[in-house]
What we know:
By secondary structure, the chain is an alpha+beta fold.
Amino acid sequence: AVVSTQSTGIHDTDPRPQPLSSVEFVRLPVVQFKEGDRQKLCCCDKKFTPEEELMEVYCGHRLHGDCATKLMETGVCPICNSTEIIEGKLREIRIDLSGFNF
């Protein structure tokens, strides 16, 4: 018997993290660090500086731009290991298109 390993598309519930595409990456919100913000450190253990621009992932963590580029390889938040790093609507579009070979 032949078993297909191709994605089934819209009903695909594969729990494995998927790297972010460059399109998804540039859609991550950019926020400025403010003195009173709760998160003071990035995954690299460097402190944020006032008014520094940071990338915010869907789980709520903020990353330096250089640290955030790792999301394009891993698809996992380096702080909490969440795979929910992009907004749900964008993830639904990704799943809908996963059955197509572009």
